[in-house]
Automatic annotation (TrEMBL):
One of its GO terms (cellular component) is nucleus. Residues 467-541, 562-640 form the RRM domain. Keywords: Exonuclease, Hydrolase, Nuclease, RNA-binding. SMART domains: EXOIII, RRM. Pfam families: RRM_1. InterPro entries: Nucleotide-bd_a/b_plait_sf, RBD_domain_sf, REX1-like_exo, REXO1/3/4-like, Ribonucl_H, RNaseH-like_sf, RNaseH_sf, RRM_dom. GO terms for molecular function: exonuclease activity; RNA binding. This is REXO5 exonuclease.
Length: 732
């Protein structure tokens, strides 16, 4: 079984501010691996990068981290899927370009950038084909895949996990150099269960078509992929042929010593759910360095001089592709490795890709480059654009959004393109691309005017209200010091004031962390404090009416999975002391001891992150058991352990507000435009959900809120990331 890629990042507590250069660093390594001087990012780590199915970057223009937390409940899918979050500096004018590096504007610049990706010819001895097969001609049996190669390249094999129920062709006679060759190719659609066959073609050694059938999948079709498969809904409507029918026909046609030939034939056999022991895979036969593969279209043109998969025709012709793969294998066997190596395919491909890059700069040229050119800004040192290398490697990147190329090759805004239209294009094209940038947008005019007209203040007020509790009533002569001590055991207090407007005195306490305020409500409401049985509650404001719902959703946030909050610590304790104290807890992964970001002093609370959710539950029981034995600790599930913790601190200390507003002061109804924005955000969340679900497993997905920067002020951006697996999320 193919290894799953995995992502790890130390984005816990304070370590969550990432620069645009660091995002570039991540995307470059994810896209290129160890090729072209790409290295592991300094701030996170991708395990098994070579097994990544692709990289998808979703950019939410005109949005910042403020929008994510303002519309936290509306971003229902985002917060339940992406564990890793980080702060970005406010968006620059060329934000999209900063993600992959800025291409040069001149032809000379293009050549100097891209030629770094062209492999240098070092003679036949260094050619990967010669290194693999030698220079002498061999018979076809020398080019069939070994058992180890079949296993490594995910071919269906007898006894392999996931191949239960697959049909065996029973072509198990001894192969010889005169065994018959058959070209095979399938076209697939996307169904509820994954890739399923919609068309199958088989050709013999003379190129005669023996089978060319449409197949109706068993599962519901999600995407016909007509642009590539050529198959439409109308074509499949009258079809009665099912997969078992095709399996039976193939088994009947193939002689017992048949050798199947195809390009990345493992995908075809997996879709056919068939096991065949002897194959020649032309994507591996024409060997390349670093695990890369030539595309069939390129090989057909470079080796056979044939044009296949023409863009003027709707979809691929599987019979044509099967015939091309067969002829490529025959050419290799007849001419021998030395003749094939002399073609210098790497140089031919590099030259072809450079031509494509120069003709198609619009694919990777952001709109902002046009503005810079018009304004005549002085040139600056830019990061090399790694998308050039992708194109040279035959992996054309995809850019979708409200930008279309103009006659000059630069990009301009196309505001008639809706998010829905962008989504439809993305659902069709992104799963088939190795690197994609998908851009969604909201109404920028609304965002600019309303954000600056109090949007930030509303969020700040709501946070302050959630961090504030009122406790009382107390006796007239109550001891304020003992009240502060008792409530301080729940977490760090920012301010404490006595409310004297009431018949009996109350205390207003504003905490620095959400968990502390929630602990106070949960553990001290109805308790006896300073000689009085008191009530503990949050201020009643319009902003806190949905507080219980918000607290529940925060507990379910994947960022807080396996994390607990512990308060009542001695401020003199260091992280080393705490590791010793809590080290006995099972599966403890890391510990975060918050501190004042201005003074650097530690707080009397900490967050503990566990490798497993159940271990966190068990740890809560243990710590609460310690409290029963006299240790003055309080604990609960975390609400804001990672990125949100720092953001709350910044919002809290940027506001001078103390305590909550009255209900009447804040009950002004939402404006029509703000209600409309909530609906747009909710719909945007659903778009991302649909797109994420359409991605192949092992795809790295990064969602970016660029942030905002203007003469009126700025808001930092936000990034979320994870690698999709068969479950909900694979970020570790």
């Amino acid at each position: 079984q193919e290894k799953a890629s995995r992502l790890s990042a130390a984005l816990f507590g304070e370590d969550c501010e990432i620069s645009h250069d660091q995002v570039y660093e991540l995307l470059k390594y994810a896209a290129l691996g160890k090729c072209h001087d790409a290295t592991q990012p300094s701030w996170c780590r991708i395990y098994h990068q070579s097994h990544l199915a692709g990289v998808v970057v979703i950019v939410l223009h005109e949005m910042s981290q403020l929008h994510f937390y303002k519309f936290y409940l509306q971003f229902k899918y985002l917060r339940k899927v992406f564990r890793h979050r980080f702060t970005l500096p406010p968006s620059s004018a060329n934000f999209v370009a900063s993600l992959f590096g800025e291409p040069q504007n001149t032809a000379q610049g293009l050549t100097s950038t891209s030629t770094e990706c062209i492999p240098k010819s070092s003679g036949l001895q260094c050619d990967p084909i010669i290194q693999k097969y030698g220079e002498e001609k061999r018979g076809l049996t020398s080019y069939t895949l070994t058992l180890e190669e079949l296993k490594k390249n995910d071919y269906p094999m007898k006894g392999s996990p996931g191949c239960k129920g697959y049909m065996y062709t029973e072509c198990d006679h001894q192969r010889t150099d005169t065994s018959p060759l058959f070209g095979l190719d399938c076209e697939m659609c996307l169904t509820a269960r994954g890739n399923e066959v919609t068309r199958v073609s088989l050709v013999d050694a003379q190129g005669q078509c023996l089978l060319n059938e449409l197949v109706k999948p068993e599962s519901t079709i999600v995407n016909y992929r007509t642009r590539y498969s050529g198959v439409t809904r109308k074509m499949l409507l009258p079809v009665k042929t099912r997969l078992p029918d095709i399996q039976t026909r193939l088994k009947k046609i193939l002689p017992h010593d048949a050798v199947l030939v195809g390009h990345s034939l493992n995908a075809d056999l997996q879709a056919l759910q068939m096991i065949h022991p002897s194959v020649i895979d032309t994507s591996l036969l024409f060997a390349r360095n670093e695990g890369r593969r030539f595309k069939l279209k390129f090989l057909a043109k470079a080796v056979l001089g044939k044009e296949i998969q023409c863009e003027q025709r709707l979809g691929h012709d599987p019979a044509e592709d099967a015939r091309a793969a067969l002829e490529l294998a025959q050419f290799f066997i007849e001419q021998g490795p030395a003749k094939v190596a002399e073609l210098n395919l790497e140089m031919l491909l590099a030259a072809e890709r450079l031509t494509e890059v120069s003709q198609d700069r619009s694919v990777i040229q952001p709109q902002e480059c046009k503005v810079q050119k018009q304004l005549g800004d002085p040139p600056h040192v830019s990061k090399p654009c790694f998308l050039d290398c992708l194109q040279v490697m035959g992996q054309k990147p995809l850019l979708l959004g409200r930008q279309e190329p103009d006659s000059s090759g630069l990009c301009q805004g196309n505001m008639s393109t809706s998010n829905k239209q962008i989504l439809q294009r993305a659902l069709e094209d992104v799963p088939l691309s190795t690197f994609s940038i998908v851009q969604f947008s909201l109404d920028s005019e609304y965002i600019a005017s309303h954000l600056l007209a109090g949007f930030c203040e509303k969020v700040s007020n709501k946070l302050t209200d959630m961090l504030t509790i009122y406790a009382g009533p107390f006796e007239e002569s109550f001891c304020l010091k003992s009240v502060k001590k008792e409530f301080g055991r729940c977490g760090p207090i920012r301010s404490l004031t006595v409310v004297t407007e009431t018949y009996q005195p109350y205390v207003c306490i504003q905490y620095e962390v959400l968990e502390a305020a929630q602990l106070a409500v949960e553990s001290l409401n109805g308790a006896e404090v300073a000689g009085s049985c008191i009530k503990v509650q949050r201020p009643v404001t319009a902003a806190t009416l949905d507080c219980d719902i918000l607290i529940k959703e925060l507990e379910l946030d994947i960022e807080n999975e396996g994390v607990i909050y512990v308060a009542g610590l001695k401020k003199s304790l260091t992280e080393t002391d705490l590791h010793e104290e809590f080290g006995q807890l099972k599966d403890l992964e890391t510990l975060f001891l918050p501190k004042d970001l201005q003074s650097g002093k530690h707080r009397n609370c900490c967050f503990l992150k566990f490798q497993k959710s159940q271990s966190a539950v068990d740890a809560l029981e243990v710590i609460n058991g310690w409290a029963m034995k006299g240790r003055k600790l309080r604990s609960r599930n975390a609400l804001a352990s990672g990125h949100l913790w720092r953001w709350i601190w910044q919002m809290n200390h940027g506001s001078g507000k103390q305590g909550g507003n009255s209900l009447t002061e804040k009950m002004a109804p939402l404006s029509d435009s703000e209600q409309d924005l909530r609906k747009k955000v909710k719909k945007l969340d659903k778009h991302i959900k649909k797109l994420y679900r359409s991605l192949q497993n092992n795809t790295l997905c990064v969602v970016l809120f660029p942030g905002m920067s203007s003469v009126h002020g700025s808001q930092s951006g936000l990034g979320l990331m994870g690698i999709k697996d068969g479950g909900v999320n694979s970020a570790c």
